[in-house]
């Protein structure tokens, strides 16, 4: 499996009054990590393409240690399962090799207009499936 990581910096706007990253901001970091992962795979607008969209269906996050103001963190994106309509991914938020938070996300492909599930394009499906084996 191929593991991708995107580096981010923690800014004042990400933190609470004590300089600790507000828990909901980890979801934003993970979203950026997924977006950059798809960009890395060649999809410049990964949330919207060819009349289709990816939407988060399920997400779960476990928190281990806090990120703080001015930290440089890495957000990974590791595909764990791919179907014609969905993908599942594990995402770690790490600082200096130390796990801060870990998330699992399931995203579904839907039709842009009807908002109903639809199979992703075959070339994209093949690309994602290939990532599972590399």
Which properties best describe this structure?
single chain, 134 residues, alpha+beta, Thiol Ester Dehydrase, Chain A, 6-stranded antiparallel β-sheet
Explain this structure:
21% of the residues lie in helices and 41% in strands. It is elongated and about 45 Å long. A hairpin with a 2-residue loop joins β5 and β6 (98-111). It has helices spanning 25-40, 122-133; strands at 4-9, 48-49, 52-63, 72-82, 86-95, 98-111. It is α+β, with helices and mostly antiparallel strands. The protein has one domain (4-133): Roll (Thiol Ester Dehydrase, Chain A).
Low-confidence stretches: none
Indicate the CATH class.
Answer: Alpha Beta
Rough shape? elongated
Beta-strand residue percentage: 35-45%
Number of helices: 2
> CATH H-level name... which superfamily?
Hotdog Thioesterase
Class inferred from helices and paired strands: alpha+beta
Q: Using only CA atoms, what is the Rg? A: 15 Å
Order of helices and strands: EHEEEEEH
Number-wise, the strands total 6
Main beta-sheet annotation? 6 strands, antiparallel
In terms of topology, how is this protein built?
Elements (H helix, E strand, L loop, with lengths): L3 E6 L15 H16 L7 E2 L2 E12 L8 E11 L3 E10 L2 E14 L10 H12 L1
Antiparallel strand pairs: 1-4, 2-3, 3-6, 4-5, 5-6
Summary, kept brief:
Helix content is 21%, strand content 41%. It has 134 residues and is an alpha+beta fold.
